[in-house]
Each structure stands twice: as structure tokens, then as C-alpha cells.
């Protein structure tokens, strides 16, 4: 215990050689939030927004495939893309119900999805994908900006 207390005290000599003690703050444990998250930039027509990727295998696969330029389509308040060429793996935690502002990979269509509101599959106030998606992360801006994107728009996804 004494060793632990001593490891938290930093000793420094002042200019007149007097010993000054400063208590060192204990380091915080690493969590997902304290790890550096990879950021991407999504350009869809006049809409440009950054997003933060999570630590999933699919997000890592996307990161390693960037940049990607594809054509976008809309389905309700969702923008999805044509095939982006990732391994078509549905993760164990893939889900149909997502949150506003989440970005995802749709393994059945090999597409990148941006969710900003209800889709035709939504029930009540939920946001529902056509089938389970691998959530990749979240937008770092106002998701509703993507309402400006029309079907046929070129979408560029790149490292930020």
C-alpha cells in the first residue's frame, strides 16, 4: 500500500532546492470512449459531414477500403448506396432498428446506409432498416442534412 501511495506523488526540486510534492492524478482506465475513434468524411452532393466509426470488424473493413465512391439512393429518410465491396458478413449484433444519425453496412445489399429518420419499414416512432444492418458508427452533425440528397447522387466516403 505504501508503494502505491508513493507512486502517486511526484517530487520536484524548486529553484532554491526545496522539495515540493505534487499529488499525481491516478490514470483512468481505457474505455471505448477514451480510445481514438477513426473518423470518416461523407460527401453526398452538397452535403458534407464527418462520422465516427465504432470498433466493429465491419467498420475496420470499411476503413481499410476507403476511399469509396458510389451512387446513392433514398428509401424514406435513409440514404443507401450501391455495392461498396466489403465482405458480406452479418455481425452477431446486427439489428433492424437503428438510431437517427447512425451509419451502417447492409450486408444483404453490400451497401452503406445513413439513417436520418423513418423508412417505409418503420413502425411507430422507430427507425427500421429493410433487414439487419451492421452499425458502423454515428454522424457528427445534423443527420437531417441528408434530406437534401436525391437518388442518383454520387457519394464519396473517405478518411477524415
N-to-C CA distance: 46 Å
Q: How many helical elements?
A: 2
Strand order of the largest sheet: 3-4-10-8-9-6-5-11
> What is the helix fraction of residues, given as a range?
under 10%
CATH fold-level assignment:
Cyclophilin
Largest sheet: 8 strands, antiparallel, barrel
- Count of spatially separate domains: 1
Oligomer classification: single chain
- Rg is 22 Å
Question: Any guess at the CATH architecture?
Answer: Beta Barrel
In total, the number of strands is 11
Written overview of the protein:
There is one protein chain. The protein is mainly beta. The protein has one domain (39-159): Cyclophilin. Helices cover 9% and strands 42% of the residues. It has helices at 2-7, 57-65; strands spanning 9-13, 19-23, 39-44, 47-53, 68-74, 78-81, 95-98, 102-106, 111-115, 127-139, 154-159. It starts with a helix and ends with a strand. Residues 1-14 and 21-35 have low confidence and may be disordered.
Amino acid at each position: 500500500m505504501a508503494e502505491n501511495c508513493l507512486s502517486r506523488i511526484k517530487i520536484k526540486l524548486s529553484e532554491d532546492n526545496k522539495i515540493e510534492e505534487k499529488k499525481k492524478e491516478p490514470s483512468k482506465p481505457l474505455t471505448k470512449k477514451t480510445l481514438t475513434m477513426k473518423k470518416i468524411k461523407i460527401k453526398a452532393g452538397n452535403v458534407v459531414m464527418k462520422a465516427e466509426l465504432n470498433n466493429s470488424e465491419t467498420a475496420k473493413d470499411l476503413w481499410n477500403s476507403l476511399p469509396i465512391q458510389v451512387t446513392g439512393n433514398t428509401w424514406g429518410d435513409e440514404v443507401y448506396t450501391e455495392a461498396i465491396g466489403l465482405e458480406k458478413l452479418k455481425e452477431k449484433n446486427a439489428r433492424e432498428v437503428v438510431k437517427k444519425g447512425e451509419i451502417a453496412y447492409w450486408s444483404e445489399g453490400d451497401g452503406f446506409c445513413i439513417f436520418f429518420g423513418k423508412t417505409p419499414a418503420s413502425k411507430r416512432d422507430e427507425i427500421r432498416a429493410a433487414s439487419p444492418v451492421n452499425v458502423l458508427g454515428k454522424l457528427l452533425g445534423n443527420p437531417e442534412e441528408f434530406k437534401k440528397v436525391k437518388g442518383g447522387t454520387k457519394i464519396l466516403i473517405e478518411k477524415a
